Amino acid sequence: MQIKDLTKFLESVAPLGYQESYDNSGLIVGNPEKEINKALISLDCTEAIVDEAIEYNCDMIISHHPIVFKGLKKLNGSNYVERVIIKAIEHKIAIYAIHTNLDAVKNGVNAKICEKIGLQNCSILYPKSNFLKKLVFFVPLANADAVRTAIFDAGAGQIGNYSHASFNIDGTGTFKPNEFADPFSGEKGKIHQEKETRIEIIYPAQIERKIIAALLNNHPYEEVAYDLYTLENNFREVGSGMVGQLEEEMDGLAFLNQLKDKMDLEVIRHTQILPKKIKRVAVCGGSGSFLLKNAIAANADVFITADFKYHEFFDAEEKIIIADIGHFESEQFTQHLLLDIITKKFPNFAIRLTENNTNPIKYL
């Protein structure tokens, strides 16, 4: 298998367009055309991880966090980032990161946390906007079904739990082919009227090329009339954090103890345990303090995340319990998520989880 075969699949699961502006997901080191035989999965890419890849003859590292977040001006080994890159290149090991784009998808990092702690009926806590677009086009009545189906097959028309969604209006189109035209209907030099259907279909912005190709390749007209609109609607399949419900409500202390067990935690930093029962729970892997207001607005009883600063704990205002479980701890099962995703698609590809704990924070 070539690197590009694996990365193309990963980017179909978590498109690079979903990553945050500060992020650097994607292929960081390596030639996409290179053949690979074995990959190592880790949360971070450190020198120890590269050494492990060398020991087990892995020619690719797939990490959640990118080793490079910003441009490198020199590569002389003066810090761990440079040393990792140099060693990976020397040993012909590719490095790939799948970070905030995997955080953002509905079946990504936060879904794994929800699964671990037993949440049900989960949804995106803070959906992204401006990630949906609408295609509007006009097609002869006799060709409407075929063109519409081709566009559905390309991935358009998905709204939550519904597929093949479109809106259709029949009307009359007019056009006058000039002497250079090759009209599907009508005659050169004469105004023609054609019974047409106006079709409106929404689609995720990142598959626009595929959608337009399906339209142009299946439409009978020489010149296809279509419009593209960017929508401000929230895209409920993509965003930050998740919120769900416990099967049965619990006391606050009992919930935190269960959380500690299920997430394999040494410690939880939390706000005051409130007298109300815990039923609705919000989560965000990694640094999620920016979502506190969203968690409160979603009527969550607890918000599980990491990297809260001292003064930010006051913002709970006895409306919610903040449970800061640690950055590494909140995302540690992302490695298992990636293993499951890849082995399901490529069952014969050799892949292993790291034996290294890359958490830089230790507890005494």
TrEMBL record:
Key words, A-Z: Metal-binding
A Pfam family that the UniProt record links to this protein: DUF34_NIF3
InterPro entries noted in UniProt: DUF34/NIF3 (IPR002678), DUF34/NIF3_bac (IPR017221), DUF34/NIF3_sf (IPR036069), N-reg_PII/ATP_PRibTrfase_C (IPR015867)
Lineage top rank: taxon: Bacteria
Gene3D superfamilies (UniProt xref): 3.30.70.120, NIF3 (NGG1p interacting factor 3)-like
UniProt key word Cell membrane: no
Family in the record: Belongs to the GTP cyclohydrolase I type 2/NIF3 family.
PANTHER family, alphabetized: GTP CYCLOHYDROLASE 1 TYPE 2 HOMOLOG (PTHR13799:SF14), NGG1 INTERACTING FACTOR 3 (PTHR13799)
Protein's name according to its UniProt entry: GTP cyclohydrolase 1 type 2 homolog
